[in-house]
Amino acid sequence: MALRSVVSRKTLAPALRHYRSLTTFTLPDLPYDYGALEPAISGEIMRLHHQKHHQTYVTNYNKALEQLDAAVSKGDAKGVVQLQSALKFNGGGHVNHSIFWQNLKPVSEGGGEPPHGALGWAIDKDFGSLEALVKKINSEGAALQGSGWVWLALDKEQKILKVETTPNQDPLVTKGVSLVPLLGVDVWEHAYYLQYKNVRPDYLANIWNVINWKYASEVYEKESA
Amino acid sequence: MQPATACASSGLTIPWLRRCSSLRVKCSTSQRAHCASTSTADTAEPIEPIEPIDPIETDPEPDPEPFKLKPLPYPFNALEPHMSKETVEYHWERHHRGHVDSLNAIIQGTEFAEMELENMVLTSYNEGNPLPFFVHASQVWNHDFFWETMKPGGGGNPSGVLKYLIERDFGSLDELAKEIQNAALTQFGSGWVWLAYKAHRLGVGNDINPRPSKKDKRLVVVKTPNAVSPLVWDYYPLLAIDVWEHAYYMDYENRRGDYVSVFLDKLISWDVVSYRLKNAMFRASKREKMEKREMLLDKMKEATLRVKVRPTPKARPKMKRRQY
């Protein structure tokens, strides 16, 4: 009995030293059907966006994480640094899109209803009115060159709402560590091209019909408490 | 031949006369003398005084369209089935034209309107701090380049100098295709993938290569974000693949890799790429000669400045001769 434990400890010890569990990610399910956001966003776009784009980000992020794990274990500093752009892109894509699916809701379930309560007052205080906020987000989104995101953010430190843009798949924290995303609008071409072609302003105007202000309010109340 | 006309003053039919009634200047000197002697000032129609021309008013109005949208070298459906008619039409008609219109709107009436497009791209890039119309100027240039890189029935293999350089710098055409694929898939976001001719060994613009060798003039695959092109790094672009999503989304959805491999297999015009390479090599060698010449002239100038004038010998007191 004692011998067996000695043997097992000896053989296990090296394995235990290098064993590290890697948390991988999976594609989250949408809380509604692909076609539920019509006519603001077509079912085809939703399907491709979720099943192809987001899935690719998740797959590549997991791959990059595995490579990172291997590089860290080996002490390969150059490898670790080289992986950073893939991690930022794919990880950011996963983070951003996970928030995005929560930001949308079918009209039948309350999508598009203006915010009430604390968030509504904060919007009036910081932007004047909901219309002014929508106009600002739309203009920043239309002016964004290339691909990126437009965010309604809460600055936890300054306790103020802000509108920010991030390029490509950079998550909001890259613009400020104290920024919390309340609403994100994807202005990559894949988010609207099949339906709106190059007319991004139309997409931005119509998406407000399916924006889930309730989720934004919940996050706001939780983070500003 | 002008029909014979009658001189209004004298009534004579003079074949060489065109219109002499009031504009006597149309006649030659001798005829003018003839008219003057036979006519009276009263019957001649008075010459209307010419108003003095205000030099400022005759400046032409600024052209509202300094740049025109270049037509495609082939019809919209010529690249089917690899690039659909819809894609080509929307891409050219909406995106490319949109950039041309935006560019015209911004530069109209400014000094940039006189510039060549390539110069405008380089100037507006402003060494990394781009001016507001850089994106439009650069996208117009990029798209013109892109359309010409493709042709109906394209694909095949490169030949001649291009083939030699591809094999020297990448190993084989397949290796090149693999590198281009990798660049396209790691261009995170919108942008372009290029094959370019890099004349200098150093990767910095405006440098003079301190140790030139034959291998310096290389082919490289580069990827650029959004509207940037390798012109700003002083490279000579040879081919361009648009990897903005609007270029392939309707045909390939999210499969950018498939789009790029079909581009290289079925759409690319290697003739155009070869032509651009020869052009680039010629311009690069011409520039190198000019730079060498300038360096030599600078050295000579420096040398002349350094030449010292031999001083006159110092006056020395004469040595006394020993008295023997």
TrEMBL record, chain A:
Domain Manganese/iron superoxide dismutase N-terminal: 24-104
Reactions the enzyme catalyzes: 2 superoxide + 2 H(+) = H2O2 + O2
EC top class, as a word: oxidoreductase
GO cellular component term, pick one: mitochondrial matrix
A molecular function GO annotation: superoxide dismutase activity
Predominant subcellular localization, coarse grouping: mitochondrion
Superkingdom of source: Eukaryota
Protein's cellular compartments: Mitochondrion matrix
UniProt xrefs under InterPro entries: Fe/Mn_Superoxide_Dismutase (IPR050265), Mn/Fe_SOD (IPR001189), Mn/Fe_SOD_BS (IPR019833), Mn/Fe_SOD_C (IPR019832), Mn/Fe_SOD_N (IPR019831), Mn/Fe_SOD_N_sf (IPR036324), SOD_C_sf (IPR036314)
Pfam families: Sod_Fe_C, Sod_Fe_N
Keywords annotated in UniProt: Manganese, Metal-binding, Mitochondrion, Oxidoreductase, Transit peptide
Domain Manganese/iron superoxide dismutase C-terminal: 116-218
SUPFAM superfamilies with a match to the protein in the record: Fe,Mn superoxide dismutase (SOD), C-terminal domain, Fe,Mn superoxide dismutase (SOD), N-terminal domain
Needed cofactors: Mn(2+)
Binding positions for Mn(2+) per the UniProt entry: 49, 97, 186, 190
EC numbers for this chain: 1.15.1.1
Coiled coil: none
Protein's job: Destroys radicals which are normally produced within the cells and which are toxic to biological systems.
Subunit structure: Homotetramer.
Family, similarity comment: Belongs to the iron/manganese superoxide dismutase family.
Name of the molecule in the record: Superoxide dismutase
Organism: Rhynchospora pubera
TrEMBL record, chain B:
Catalytic activity field: 2 superoxide + 2 H(+) = H2O2 + O2
Cofactor: Fe cation
Stretches assigned to the Manganese/iron superoxide dismutase C-terminal domain: 159-275
Entry's family note: Belongs to the iron/manganese superoxide dismutase family.
One GO CC term on file: chloroplast nucleoid
Transmembrane segments: none
GO molecular function: metal ion binding; superoxide dismutase activity
Keyword vocabulary terms for this entry: Metal-binding, Oxidoreductase
SUPFAM superfamilies given in the database record: Fe,Mn superoxide dismutase (SOD), C-terminal domain, Fe,Mn superoxide dismutase (SOD), N-terminal domain
Lineage, opening ranks: Eukaryota, Viridiplantae, Streptophyta, Embryophyta, Tracheophyta
Species, as recorded: Rhynchospora pubera
Manganese/iron superoxide dismutase N-terminal domain residues: 67-150
Compositionally skewed regions (Acidic residues) per UniProt: 54-64
Region listing for Disordered, in residue ranges: 34-67
Name the record gives this protein: superoxide dismutase
EC code(s) of this entry: 1.15.1.1
InterPro entries reported in the protein's UniProt record: Mn/Fe_SOD, Mn/Fe_SOD_BS, Mn/Fe_SOD_C, Mn/Fe_SOD_N, Mn/Fe_SOD_N_sf, SOD_C_sf
